[in-house]
Amino acid sequence: MFIEYRIAQLCKCSSHFLQTKSGIALMYNEETNNTYDVCLKLTKAVLTIQKMDVVCTSGSEPQVNHRTVVLRRQASGSLGLSIKGGAEHKVPVVISKIFKDQVADQTGKLFVGDAVLQVGISVHLLRTAGDEVTITVRYLREVPSFLKLPLGSPGLSTDHSRVSCPLYDMGLHLNGNGNCIASSPPSPSANEPKYEKRWLDAISIPLMKARVSRYKAGTDKLRSNCFEVYVLDDDRTNILQFCSAAESTDWLQVISTNINELKHENVFLTSLQIIHMGWACESPEGSAARRTLTFKFLALRGPYFHIFRRPPISAADWGQAETTYNLYEVLFKVHKLWLVEDCWLQARLYLGLEQSSEQQDSESLCFSILVGHGQSHTFRVELATDLAIWEKSFQRAVFLEVQRIQSKSYMCSSQGNVFCFTIDFGSGFTCSDGSSKAVLWQYKFSQLKGSSDDGKTRVKLIFKNAESKQIEMKELEFANLTAVLHCIHSFISAKVASMDPLTSGCQMFPGNNMDG
């Protein structure tokens, strides 16, 4: 009970803090199978993806995308740089290293990652050119993956140093010194333009229109150490890759939190009673080998559970739900059932400490919403904390709805007679005549000892008579048996919850007891 309470408190608290965060990641391009460095900056409402570029910071020269540089060869024949790439690799020739205090370094205009723009340039041409070599370069923002160091390698930093080593030195040297040391070049004259590397905003993603997923689009296959940020009405893909699963999970968590909190803030302004809402991936019914997964926006609002194709923005949008169900007639079911002995593993999952994809299977992080006539919806979330929050939110939403309506009646029949079956939070179960309204029998919740049904329309309710202590069975037939059984479950769960001081954030419910 203590672990469950602490998890509930964590889930409640963790969803009320908008976070800011920044760091380095890789952007993955599925079409070219290439990755390149990006800087992420997360604020309350926007995720900004920055790309490195070279900018002119002073001098008379305008800020253009390319630079023309004149290199005067040293007596040793060195130009003070190394290059790699070329036509044989189907990529531009790229400067992979600049050597301290030598010709290329002293210009102040060349950087590791610069692509040589002249068509047909080669190592041979640069080596055999005269004492003065003129090249035109442009910083290659999306460096081909085979030229790059792994993410997190030495030399990959967030500072604006002009000299760094973000590329593998597998190219040919146009220099006699193999050291690559970060340093500042000699100060150019006042009239000379000055250049430096800077992270520049490239993509701005409004979180109100965003969702995130670790799964490959339309499949149940997990990406390794990365996730995709989707933007509504935007076909661009933003796949972010990280050094480790832990770092990927951390970024996924904070982005998801900010997205959800923004949705809640927007709803708060419209005075709608929202318990919880967020994105989830719906799995189609059936066990087909190739299943197409679709993202749905789910919301627990007042007496209803809504399923949307896109998030509601205005109050009018709430009438555009794809499907809406009465909360007291649905049943929430987590696919992974945890034994009591697994409570510490369960706690670690809920706290986000167990996120290894190897530990996940087709049932991991999934829950189902069972509705009337045997129908159901199955959803998958991104993190164990998401699953915990949905479970606790459903419990609270159902409890509040039962407290609000207090009772629910269904028409039924037995042996050709029409009855009215009522489930009441205070008194329990009552069956009355459909015409005269005369009470035929009544039992408290505590007297229900079991039930069985045919899975279609008929149910047998087994009660214990309070006076005779005898077992009594009542057989009833309903048009929508599943909805009735779910309603009974909701009322009994709410009755039990009303006895628990830890329910609903330690709210006490004086005067309630299980005699009802």
UniProtKB/TrEMBL annotation:
Subcellular location: Cytoplasm, Cytoskeleton
Superkingdom field: Eukaryota
A single GO cellular-component term on record: dystrophin-associated glycoprotein complex
Domain PDZ residue range list: 68-155
GO molecular function annotations of the record: structural molecule activity
Matches recorded under SMART domains: PDZ (SM00228)
Principal location class: cytoplasm
SUPFAM superfamilies to which the protein is assigned, alphabetical: PDZ domain-like, PH domain-like
InterPro entries: PDZ, PDZ_sf, Syntrophin, Syntrophin_4th
Pfam families for the chain: PDZ, Syntrophin_4th
Keywords assigned by UniProt, alphabetized: Cytoplasm, Cytoskeleton
Similarity comment: family membership: Belongs to the syntrophin family.
Protein name: Syntrophin, gamma 2
Protein species of origin: Labrus bergylta (ballan wrasse)
